[in-house]
Amino acid sequence: MKWFDKTEVKDKAGLSEKEMEYLYKPSFSVFGPLNMIVRGHWDFIAAIVGLNIITWLMGDEETVASSILALIILGFYAWFLYFQITNSRRLSWNRNKWSSFEDFKDSENRWAFWGYLVFSLIILTLAASFIQGFLEA
Predict the structure, then answer these.
(1) What Cα–Cα distance (Å) separates residue 86 from each residue in 45, 65, 80?
(2) What is the pLDDT of residue 131?
(3) What is d(CA 20, CA 101) in angstroms, rounded to the nearest whole number?
(4) Which residue has the higher pLDDT, 7 or 115?
(5) Contacts of 53 (CB under 8 A, 6+ apart)
(6) What is the rounded distance in angstroms from the CA atom of residue 103 to the CA atom of residue 93?
(7) What is the pTM of this model?
(8) Torsion of CA 29, 42, 3, 104, to 10 degrees
(9) How far is residue 132's CA from residue 55's CA, in Å, rounded to a whole number?
(10) Nearest Cα to 30, choosing from 126, 127, 108?
(11) What is the pLDDT of residue 39?
């Protein structure tokens, strides 16, 4: 099963139409990086690490190349957040074996707070970094 396929759902035949709709609703998840590591998608992780290393090697130079690189990194993170919001429920359903759909929904509700917290921290960190860049300029 391809974990990134937007149409694939485990045990699709045993789910009602309402349950399928629930799986495709947006939600927040803290398991995105874990999914990438467990499923062996090292290419995406290597790209993020590589881009950050290149940024570190370039130093504090204010060049067009460093600005383009910063936009590429920002685009990577934006795509990752979008992917997590739009696919996290389905990924969670596919990742585990659930005794019932209600157990799955209960688990999703228990983890929702942590998903919102991590998402908020990411946004605050990006905003603080953006503001710091303006203050230093």
Answers:
(1) 19, 31, 10
(2) 84
(3) 10
(4) 115
(5) none
(6) 11
(7) 0.65
(8) -30
(9) 17
(10) 108
(11) 63
Tokens linked to 37: 């590591």
Amino acid at 97: K
| H helix runs in the chain, sequence order | 17-23, 32-38, 42-58, 64-95, 101-136
Q: Tally Cβ neighbours within 10 Å of residue 83.
A: 16
Structure tokens at 120: 């908020």
Every domain of the chain and the residues it spans: 33-95, 100-137
The number of CA neighbours under 13 Å toward the Cβ of 58 is 17
Does the structure show a pLDDT above 70 at 40? no
Separation between Cα atoms, residue 91 and residue 29, nearest integer Å: 10
Instruction: Tell me the C-alpha distance between 111 and 8, whole Å.
Output: 23
